[in-house]
Amino acid sequence: MADDEEKKRKQAETDRKRAEVRARLEEASKAKKAKKGFMTPDRKKKLRLLLRKKAAEELKKEQERKAAERRRIIEERCGKPKNVDDASEETVKRVLREYHNRIIALEDQKFDFEYIVKKKDYEVLARKNNNNNKKKTNQCCNENVTQMCERLLGYASLSRRRTASATFGKELEK
């Protein structure tokens, strides 16, 4: 009987120790869960709202910056509008000639830029074809490409374009 009581006492002590260990483990797991649960659903919603507001503000600032840049570029390229409401006929003609000369210069620049782009596209295509045919790219020299571009793309020289557009000013004087 003493052995039975001794066994029961030892069994009770081991059960008590197990329960104690189990309780400590449960407390530790609860503490870990509490640390992991920092971002509650309410906090997540608030954070999302803050992020959306911040993104909206950044987008608005970017749009304002782009609009200001666009206004600045337009003003730079077009110049300030001339007041011709109370101007004489000669002043109006002078302003028209200035605008016309500016348009001609801009059209010349546009044409030259388009030509350069077409020429580069043609050079890329020629080099691509040369690479496809396993030929060296040195066979396509710049002078030949320029001549081919002028012939194929119909590039008119700058002086020919200017003489053709110079008649506008003479028509105004008549």
Automatic annotation (TrEMBL):
The organism's place on the tree of life at top rank: Eukaryota
One GO CC term on file: troponin complex
One Pfam assignment: Troponin
The keyword Coiled coil appears for this protein: yes
Comp. bias (Basic and acidic residues): 1-30
GO BP, one annotated term: muscle contraction
Keywords in alphabetical order: Coiled coil
Region feature Disordered, mapped onto this chain: 1-44
Recorded coiled-coil stretches: 46-76
Family, as annotated: Belongs to the troponin I family.
Protein name from the UniProt record: Troponin I
